[in-house]
Amino acid sequence: MKIDIIAKDAKGHEVLIAEVRGIVLDDDAAIRTLDYLRELKLPARFGMVADPEWIRIADLENPEDRFVCVLNSKDLLRYYQPDFGEKRIREGFLTTLIEAWLRDIAYRWKSETPPELDQLSAIGLAEPLKDGSTDSEVIIEADPVY
Asked: Which of 16, 39, 72, 80 is a plausible cystine mate for 46, CB 3.0–4.6 Å?
């Protein structure tokens, strides 16, 4: 199975696993995707579901948690692609933009204060991402029962 993005801390430990969708998901579909990420039992504390309108983040260690943070994709990603949201976007390009934002959080390559840094700090995600890395399209072995 393939995970769209895995973000790691500076020591290489998984911090965030993310699924990116090219279509807008309702909250129920996002919750089902996050539940699926929980079932993978990867060591990452946070899960993310991103689509062209919303970036939803959950604490994977808390199964009762719906979302600890919901961000507007258009507002956030226009910082990296000024015309974002004006036309249909391919899922691969959306993944690239999400990864660029996560790398900006890690290295401040575009801004000293990347978009929504305060929100990620408030949920405890910004600090582990500092000096970390991201991998995209990561193939993992899944339990054959699923």
From this structure: 16
How many structural domains is the chain composed of?
A: 1
Structure tokens at 90: 């391919």
91-144 residue pLDDT tens: 999 999 999 999 999 999 989 999 999 999 999 999 999 999 999 988 877 554
**How far apart, in whole angstroms, are the C-alpha atoms of residue 52 and residue 115?**
16
Decide if 106 contacts 133 (C-beta within 8 A).
yes
Is 140 inside any structural domain? no
Beta bridge partners of 46: 16, 59
- Token couple for 28: 């129920």
> How far apart are the two ends of the chain, measured CA to CA in Å?
11
Separation between Cα atoms, residue 4 and residue 138, nearest integer Å: 6
Asked whether residue 144 is assigned to any structural domain, the reply reads no
Report the pLDDT value the prediction gives residue 146, as an integer from 0 to 100.
Answer: 44
The arrangement of strands across the sheet holding 54-59 comes to 69-72, 54-59, 46-50, 14-20, 2-8, 133-139
CB 12 within 8 A of CB 91: no
Q: What residues make up the domain containing 42?
A: 2-129
In a domain? residue 113:
yes
Domain assignment of residue 135, yes or no: no
